[in-house]
From TrEMBL:
Membrane topology, from the record: Multi-pass membrane protein
PROSITE patterns: MFS
UniProt name for this protein: Drug resistance transporter, EmrB/QacA subfamily
Lineage, broadest ranks: Bacteria, Bacillati, Actinomycetota, Actinomycetes, Micromonosporales
Ranges annotated as biased composition (Low complexity): 462-471
Gene Ontology molecular function, alphabetical: transmembrane transporter activity
Amino acid sequence: MTETVRRGSRRLTFFVLAAGAGFFAMLQSLITPVLPTIQHDLHTSQNTVTWVLTAYLLSASIFTPILGRVGDMVGKERMLVVSLASLALGCLLAAAAPSIGVLIVARVIQGIGGAVFPLSFGIIRDEFPAARVTSAVAAISAIVAAGGGLGVVLAGPIVTALDYRWLFWIPMVVVGLTALAAHLFVPESPVRTPGRIDWRATVLLSGWLVALLLPISKGSAWGWTSGRVLGLLALAVVLLAGWLVAEIRSTNPLIDMRMMRLPGVWTTNLVALLYGASMFSVYAFLPQFVQTPTVAGYGFGASITQAGLLMLPMLVAMFVAGILAGRLASRFSAKAQLATGAAFNVLATAMLTVAHDTRWEIGVAGGLVGLGIGLAFASMANLIVGNVPSWQTGVATGMNANIRTIGGAIGAAVVSGVITAHPQANGLPREAGFTMGFLVLTGLALAAALAALAVPSARRAAAGRRPSPATEPVGELVTVPAGR
């Protein structure tokens, strides 16, 4: 009877974790098809409105390791509730935002919810049987991938029936209920990792990300050789170097650089960085391309709903590939699936570069992107799980998701700068801007595919992940009294 109750509790816990992670991923892409609508409604530029996406990804990149670390110290369930509540609060502010500045601030608050990834993976590690950890982590990763694709498809019908602000009202209600469910039903983990937050590393991490993304996104407006751009890029390099030194020397690092040096970890994270840059940019700019009025000489003048329907092949392919990934695991290794997924992404972005004149070409390219994401997300999670000690599953998988988000923020800023560099007289981007943007994505996708080939095989990874005494957990297990 007790075991039956525990299994039921695990199912409920998994459902809550999946809902939280899925809705965060959905909010990454839900607003991308309506960026032109937001730009018009809030009277801003295309370059500025892109920060509605970039700010969300940047905030998640910063807060994910911080709250993940706090969760290890004070309780993962508590921080899960905080993350979900922040996501709901950000949705409330975004729904009522009177200006683009307020909307960007709201998206920063929503980004705090990015901590649901490491917290969810850590809870799975602590609460689920060891034999089920890998499959549960892969399932959450697949749901995250599907959530991102679903957001692009659902945006149109919601905006058509209601208004773009309902893209925030609806998630606010659902995420708020999910936060309540997490408080009521997700058990508090008995595992604690004593330590403290290294605020110096936190400030340096925030600093180099902002110093990098701001000039990349504003380079076309400020001038790529201007003092502001060159000065900020130089500052980013200095702050990045300072952050790396601080993390290496810290006794309580936000990101354990010893773990990051494991061959199976750093190669998979490199794939995540490059893949994230390509994937999030496709989410952001492909819907904008198909919505471009035909007066620009390209595009389809599609409505938001029509743009979502053109993205439907991507969602279907993503769902199918996500299901097949688990079933193919016995025949095709995680590395093989990752490399295959990356190859699909190369084909998709290359196709968009040379063939984007008809709707079927967009649909086929989107389907290839979906196949790639479905295979890559699950395989990256399993590669990380298979390459780190069990007590580092949560932080390692969470960091992989975070690096993917950092890549997305960088990729979105870079491609936005490329697309908007030389607008037409009517303010619309030139077709050459999108073509060059798709070419940049092809380069990123190709680099991700090559990095996937460098991931160690399972046998080599198993031999290389034996922990040194320096990485053994000390004083990690602390029993927490039952109840609240």
